[in-house]
Amino acid sequence: MADPCLPSETIRIEAFSDGVFAIAMTLLVIEIKVPGHDLVAKIGLARCLISLWPSYLAFLTSFATILVIWVHHHWIFALIERNDQSFLYWNGLLLFLVTFVPFPTALLSEYLLHREAKIAANLYTGTILAISLAFDALWRHASLRLLSATATSAKQKEARQITKRYRFGPPLYLGAFGVSFLSEAWSVGLCLVLALFFAIRGWPGRGVTDPETA
Amino acid sequence: MADPCLPSETIRIEAFSDGVFAIAMTLLVIEIKVPGHDLVAKIGLARCLISLWPSYLAFLTSFATILVIWVHHHWIFALIERNDQSFLYWNGLLLFLVTFVPFPTALLSEYLLHREAKIAANLYTGTILAISLAFDALWRHASLRLLSATATSAKQKEARQITKRYRFGPPLYLGAFGVSFLSEAWSVGLCLVLALFFAIRGWPGRGVTDPETA
Amino acid sequence: MADPCLPSETIRIEAFSDGVFAIAMTLLVIEIKVPGHDLVAKIGLARCLISLWPSYLAFLTSFATILVIWVHHHWIFALIERNDQSFLYWNGLLLFLVTFVPFPTALLSEYLLHREAKIAANLYTGTILAISLAFDALWRHASLRLLSATATSAKQKEARQITKRYRFGPPLYLGAFGVSFLSEAWSVGLCLVLALFFAIRGWPGRGVTDPETA
Amino acid sequence: MADPCLPSETIRIEAFSDGVFAIAMTLLVIEIKVPGHDLVAKIGLARCLISLWPSYLAFLTSFATILVIWVHHHWIFALIERNDQSFLYWNGLLLFLVTFVPFPTALLSEYLLHREAKIAANLYTGTILAISLAFDALWRHASLRLLSATATSAKQKEARQITKRYRFGPPLYLGAFGVSFLSEAWSVGLCLVLALFFAIRGWPGRGVTDPETA
């Protein structure tokens, strides 16, 4: 840790946010509904489980998206050196959207194979788009306001690189939202691909090893 | 941190409380029920989702209220320098009321558009009023008993300012409870406005940056 | 903290246990079911809410019991100075029983006013009795094995006092289990009274302030 | 702690993983369904509760499995000295599989006594097999990449011993998966026995006391 006395305030916000991320990720699974005995009697358990694929896709995509948001959230907190009230409420907005994710996930699981799937996919990709916008706003606020005075030039350079990289997030998720009007399943698949892409891409110029000690 | 050796007792209570706040906030979403196929067949998915607005309002209001309670709870813990058994149980009462919130939230979601909405709104605003009273009791106990001996005069002055500010909480929530007898939706809206008001208003005389290092 | 280098192992077990306690307590609320529209149409929302009193009683009793277990669990961890594998698994057994609590709580909520209430009350009070036995075993193991060599005589004296006090726990809960064969509601009420009693009684010879710094 | 300045990155990943483990374990209980009034009226509450034994078996097995994974996960984190991006995503895969566990657990509870129980047992044991493979991959990556340069020879020796011991995990769980094609209940029982076996067996050459201070 650069600063041995990182304000405990920041640590507590980070720990609280982690709690919310972890719970939101883990709650997703209760939206995968065990098939009822009537349907199993008719088409068999194996086919019932296969027909649940929209639930698996939605669960996997939401899980991966929240996990990647968590990883990046973590990186932001390693960079910032203080926080202010606006930061607290931008973070609150991000958490609000993340805790909302189980609802569009459940809706998508239920209606992806329905003739009104478009609306479910719109809401799902729209929620993820909103998360990417809230994350962007959080980062912009953090990089402009919470780094300026005391940051080393290395941190400032890193912050500029991150800003560059993050500028692709919202337009890409806007694209997924657009695709949801054409093909529901593909728009969700695109969200999954984006989560994997942001996962692999990582942090500018180095691995995860040492965001704080480097 | 003023004291590098803040008793680990206080830290554990704070971490435990944070866990309860985070879970209560995240559990709220499972009370937004995915509309059933029958209703969707009749009025379409879009109109079903729109008719869920009481759920969204209740979710947002409960989330914002618990988030603001968490932020203020956090500030109290930054000020106090020790704890005693009464504090532990006042805190337990606050946590009890916070974990109860998903029930009146679900009740309100289900019955806000029903002719007996008044009872649901009474219980909802009454629960939030009870939370504000429990928080007030926690703060009174903390400021009178857990600060007196060792606090610096700066902390004591801050404590007095907070006491001044908090005296508006319970009467305002009593007002919301009163409004719930006249208009259910407006009483919930008032709770939401109050949460935003206490969020923006913040801590006396400074930002969030440094409650402990300042 | 007596020892600035308390093994991080113990801290992680404590934090993990806290997480389980917090989640189990918060999950209890989702077992209070919002009354259905059919019943509300018949007897009105107010009477529906009143008829849910077994749910409130069960929720309150389970919440208070887990909270008190958490407080005492915390005190044990402040005393022990190391841990071993048996301790880990006694703790695992305690956590297992605590995570099970929402099931007998839900069962009691559903069947306390039913003619087979006795079985629900047996399971409920039996589960709490099992928790008190697991806690007792955890404490016995901790006090005999994890304190002996390095503890100061003050800690050893405290440990002896705690052992004395805890010997009342299992017999009292056995009493509640016995009462569940005579009166279901009273046996649950007795569990609630016991939780409040152990809450107020506290730790031998001092307040909560300083189990570690004293 | 070997290193007083263990990178806070690792601590946060560990804390986040702990949160996911704790929530997944605690959520399992909500899949034990309170028996309905119709069935209770027909066969009595006692027999209803007894007929829920597949739920209890599945709950206990999943709880024990996740608890043991948590304990071992913890030991790995005590050994590694840094992390990299691959580690983060192997860990993410493990967490993904762990959060999925409540679904096959609920499926097994519902269908263990059904004539298509085989499919439920296949999915259940297959999920646990996948967890053991993900854990193995996590450990391989950690032991090869994250220990090599700076580890003391004691740690390296310990790592080699662990690798030796862990090589039994995946084949044993593959066995349980195989048994699930012959007898559903026995395959689940075998998973429970394996969890207890890995629990008792512990860490090479010593107790839990001091993985970090030793």
How do you describe this structure in short?
The structure is a homotetramer of 214-residue chains. With 214 residues, chain A is mainly α.
Structural description of this entry:
Four copies of one chain form a homotetramer. The first copy, chain A, is mainly alpha-helical and about 210 residues long. Chain A has one domain (about 10-200). Helix content of chain A is about 75%, strand content about 0%. Chain A contains ten helices and no strands. Chain A has helices at about 10-25, 35-45, 45-50, 55-80, 85-100, 100-110, 115-145, 155-165, 170-180, 185-200. The longest helix of chain A is centred in the middle third of the chain and has 29 residues, at about 115-145. The radius of gyration of chain A is 19 Å and the shape is elongated. Chain A starts with 7 loop residues before the first helix and ends in a 13-residue tail after the last helix. The model of chain A is unreliable at about 1-5 and about 205-214 (pLDDT under 50). Chains in contact: A-B, A-D, B-C, C-D. At the A-B interface, α1, α5, α6 and α7 of A face α1, α3 and α4 of B.
